Amino acid sequence: MSHDQLESALRERLKQNLESGISQGIFPGGIATLARDGLPAITVAVGKTEGAQDEQEQAFGSVEEPNMTSSASPADSSKHGDGKKDGIEVDANTMYDMASLTKVMVALPLVLLSVQEGRLSLTDSVTRHLPELEEGTDATTKRKITLLHLLTHTSGLPAWRPFFLYARGVKEYLRLIAAEAMTGTPGKQVVYSDLGFMLLGFILERAWDEPLDQLAQRLIFQPSGLTRTCYLPLQHDGLDVSAIAPTENGNAYEQDMARQQLIQEEALGLPSARELSERLACFDWRRGIIRGSVHDCNAYHGLDGVSGHAGLFSTSADTERYMRIWTSNESPVRIDPVLRATAVRSHTGELAPMRALGWEASATGGTLEQMAAGCTGGDVLSSQAFGHTGFTGTSIWRDPARGATLIILTNRVHPTVSSLIGPWRRSVCNQLFSLIGTAGSS
């Protein structure tokens, strides 16, 4: 296949897959960028930022703007856009709630920069920087948690807790995490944990004595030329809110997660179940379409929209620029080559699923159990590949053996959460990466 034929085939395959996702009702629109080393990136945008207003009203009643953190109110948000509710075409300027891509676009690079600046070590105990964790449950075990454990999701901390029902601010979150029982032993299991990356955000703020959003702007976004990447986009003057893809209609999905947590606590006869039930009954959940404020409830309600685990907004073009930190030696943000290589390599032995530092590692070449657990990037990635996904419908996968990075941004939580994103994403990765030869292939 000639260069021009391959370019055309890749572009058409991206377009077909985005159209397929729309027709299946997974998302109303999306944008995909395929960046290959030494070649211009291929970007395809299809669909709109949201469905038609009458379809949303039929399913959910009238569409309201969300309550906002910060000074921006629902009424204020209308001044940023044209007031249309039927969505605009997705394009290169469309901003998406990146969800857990925050972990690898903010927390991970800042930790690595902190290490090479001598402010942190990957082997530091978490209690060295957050001594509050020694004041609660399982303090002896928590002293054994290192930054490496947090980054590889092997800390033994729970995956998620609805702390936003109880607390606001870092101090209160630290109190609750200190009181939380460990669910495992550091280094002995892989359990993807938002709590671990909340802690990394708190540690970074203390290491630099600077708020996390400002630190990310100063050390990553500004030097990398990421002009449409930020936390709290509604606080940025001149931003057109209509260019932000909306997320869920309220927080029904996370509300159900909190109910499931209650069912588990009641089944175990835990005394905490009564308070959780009371908190659930009186909590003021967001109503209407969420746009411009972070979808994640712990980030939004509990941590004022800024956290190491969620809260970032960005575009496809900015995400491609960010990934040059991991693909080019000419990036304005320099992570030590040894640290960079360490970060993208699996460190979880025979545990499944395979995790690098922050990143998910390709299961290719792993044990039968690891390959069966799979990875979100599909089945044809090389053993060198690494990536990450965001709950809202975002993803990055990089395969160094193919010299290719695939970035897909959608809002699959709009207006409700689609469970079809996983199979769709793996299929797209399989199709695109299989068209691109590895080094040395014909």
Q: What would you say this structure looks like, in words?
A:
- By secondary structure, the protein is an alpha+beta fold.
- The protein has a domain at 252-282.
- Helices cover 39% and strands 9% of the residues.
- It contains 18 helices and 9 strands.
- It has a 6-stranded antiparallel beta sheet, with helices on both faces.
- Strand 1 and strand 2 (42-47) form a beta hairpin.
- It is globular.
- It starts with a helix and ends in a 7-residue tail after the last helix.
- The model is unreliable at 54-84 (pLDDT under 50).
- This is Beta-lactamase.
- One of its GO terms (molecular function) is hydrolase activity.
| Stretches with pLDDT under 50, minimum 5 residues | 54-84
Order of helices and strands: HEEHHEHHHHHHHEHHHEHHHEHEEEH
Q: Between the first and last Cα atoms, what is the distance in angstroms?
A: 10 Å
Number of helices: 18
What is the rounded Rg?
Answer: 21 Å
Largest sheet: 6 strands, antiparallel
Shape: globular
Average pLDDT value? 92
User: β content, as a range?
Assistant: 5-15%
Q: What is the spatial order of strands in the main beta sheet? A: 2-1-9-8-7-6
Which structural class best describes the helix and strand composition?
alpha+beta
Helix fraction bin: 25-40%
How many strands appear in the DSSP assignment? Answer: 9
